[in-house]
Amino acid sequence: MMIIRRRWPARPAALLAALLTVSFAVLGGGLPAHADEPTAAAGTPSATEAPKVDLILDVSGSMATTDIEGKSRISVAQQSIDEVIDALPPEAEFGIRTLGATYPVSDKTDGCKDTKVLYPVGKTDKVEAKTAVATLRPTGWTPIGLALRGAAQDLGTGTATRRVVLITDGEDDCSPPDPCDVARELAAQGTHLVVDTLGLAHDDQVRQQLVCIANATGGTYTDVHTQAQLTQRVQQLVKQSDTTYQATPANIAGADSCASAPLLTPGVYADREKFSEHRVYRVSVKPGQELRASVSVTPDRAVARDYGVLLQASDASGQELVRGADAGSGRTDVASTGLRWSAADSPSPTASATALQGATTSGTTSGTTTDATAGQLVCLTVSNSFAGQPGVQTDPGLPLQLTVDVAAASPAPAGPALGLGRGWIMLLVLTGAGLVTGLLWGWIARWRIAVWREN
């Protein structure tokens, strides 16, 4: 009898452990996995210029906050940057710029000018670069706008797209210049500068500003929750910089409707748009891919003070999918903007069929042929509200530069809907596991009582 009492408690525990193991395996297997590897862009990559990346690190006082896996934001960023530096390819030209690293919060006058080169863009001495990062301590203010201008100077001019990676936990507290204005300014210069932003603080206002910066230059925004996520994302961006475009855009002519619009592959394109005109282009986006597009219209003649540029994505039926970040912001001086859109799980046969009516199924821009039936056709519409001052010629149209990229869809920033969905899955699995375990435990208890009574 004693042997029975000693042996049986171990068996329910083993059953419970096995059941929970299976439950968590089911839970882990049921959650969607997100791939974020970049898709090679079409067009001719630069054969003479090495990939260039300038990382901007926020070293303002708030980076001392301890809220990422029990560690301070600055220590998480430093560790991630060390790992990124260790993994740098030998041909990469990498640099680091800081903001808020020198002057204390008590000195706002100098603190709002506080951005400097920590490690110059070029071939990387990994020991020297990591040593420089290790010396940083959270100190001052957050002049993001000035840091973006400085990073553009760090990268210089060249024949290929250059990338800025901004790691920060707050919005610019030193405006002017407003960082969104600076991002638009850089995009309008046509210098092929892409800014990717990574936020360490989960604040809606900060997120809005970082999304604005990224969208204006055709970059991406990532909401960072763990050190591993930060490391992985920066490494992906550095790797993505290896896929670059030639500085000379391909000349194209947009249409007045989607059906007759040119089909674009990833690349940089030049066109001209008349005052208050709409020009349409098409892009094929496969399931699991993300369309990233940015546009800048350069006012190369005297124009009226109030103007704006709108970039809009719609399906072939004309239903809007998404529009540029500045739409509805109330701004009247937008010269450049950008958008991101992820394809649905499966392309819309109706939309694709509609788009194909009267249109060619292949495009030859950048010397590349694209099968339009391989994905959903997205119509990109560029429109402007520019008006010329009296006596200004309307022909030719204003210079327009459009950048198009199609990459593997990146995970969306964590939000209530995503968290709720995964929470329900876990709740259902744990509820089921608890019910089954309770039934088993009750049956075992009754069986043991029966055995005890018999003995």
From TrEMBL:
Residues 340-369 are annotated as: Disordered. Residues 52-241 form the VWFA domain. Residues 1-35 form the signal peptide. Pfam families: VWA_2 (PF13519). Keywords: Membrane, Signal, Transmembrane, Transmembrane helix. Residues 342-369 have a biased composition (Low complexity). The chain crosses the membrane at residues 423-444. PANTHER family: CALCIUM-ACTIVATED CHLORIDE CHANNEL REGULATOR, ZINC FINGER (C3HC4-TYPE RING FINGER) FAMILY PROTEIN. This is Ca-activated chloride channel family protein. It comes from Kitasatospora kifunensis (Streptomyces kifunensis).
